[in-house]
Amino acid sequence: MIDSSSDNRSRILDSALHLFSERGYDAVGVQEIADSCSVTKPTLYHYFGSKRGLIEALLKDRFEPFLGGMRGACAYKGDIVHNLNQCALYIFSRAQSSPDFFRLMLQCSHAPLASELGSALRPWNEEYFRLFEGLFAEAARDNGNMSGRQTAYALSFIGTLHAWASIVITRCMETPEELVYRIVHYFMHGIYS
What pTM was computed for the model? Predict the structure, then answer.
């Protein structure tokens, strides 16, 4: 027997993700989401309580596994270049395999902090940033010239990766390892020079 409860919840999340990523969170109404996945508005409210509850559930559902992979890529093992390559490869592969999630993630990162979307994303964004900041702090122990700059490096590297990931999604292109190598090489050149 198929669990329609689980199926309905998943269809709502998938539909909301697609609509939010295509048009933005504020431009999509609850009725439109319900209609797009053939459920009633009360059914949507049954699972999520509100549009805010829906975006929070969606972020939890998609961000937790994403951050799990990022934790592995950011686990410093004595070679910052290797870690940055792993981070870039992971982000680009996720952008290619889940373009709707990545588009939503990029939109969310530019949402006003006091907005419903901005406040729903804040805890996820903070953990994401802390992973990179922690990676650069660990690497600074081996590379003295990086000391005290982990925040700036984290912000710069995330911005670089997000800009490239946006291009990857928009152009529906593969990310060759040579491109990843060049991105990391240029970034590290700035640190070492």
Answer: 0.89
